[in-house]
């Protein structure tokens, strides 16, 4: 079963949260509500999120301050943030949003289809990264098992070869999906942050592919796995 991605929705107005849930429900992911910046930071302590939709105008800790706290934490600094605002204060206000670490800054009322499409891109990137980490973890386990069973002979070698072939096939599927996503981003002239994230994912996939290739019989071992 494929694990669903979590999307954090942060807004002090319940009707806005309800509207966001209605727009994003078609993505079939897990939507998590937070009615304040403090509540959002608390949720981020325990759960991993694919993307955060963050309202700018909130009483107490506003969106800019909340984003600053998110970007200061090592655990959450790389989570994409999309700012949502009901008031367009001009270029300076928009620049402040990007300076706070947002990947996008959308003024209300926004086009539901556009918002859903933007969120979908970051969900796809998040899922590809999760798949990559799973493949690397499986390979590490196999390598540890092979080292512990050193000297077992042909059976261990046969099992290792079988698992390497399975991992290679799984990685090929992730590579194909990542390539398709990158082409889609290029064709749609997507946000620079999304394109950069996709490129980073492709580099990690390339590193994992090299590590797998180096473990093929006759190669004499290989470099460490990407993290």
TrEMBL record:
Residues 164-191 form a coiled coil. SMART domains: REC. Pfam families: Response_reg. It comes from the Bacteria. GO terms for biological process: phosphorelay signal transduction system. The keyword Amino-acid biosynthesis does not apply. Residues 6-123 form the Response regulatory domain. The modification 4-aspartylphosphate is found at residue 55. Keywords: Coiled coil, Phosphoprotein. InterPro entries: Bact_response_regulator (IPR050595), CheY-like_superfamily (IPR011006), Sig_transdc_resp-reg_receiver (IPR001789). PROSITE patterns: RESPONSE_REGULATORY. PANTHER family: RESPONSE REGULATORY DOMAIN-CONTAINING PROTEIN (PTHR44591:SF3), STRESS RESPONSE REGULATOR PROTEIN 1 (PTHR44591). This is Response regulator PleD. It comes from Streptomyces rubrolavendulae.
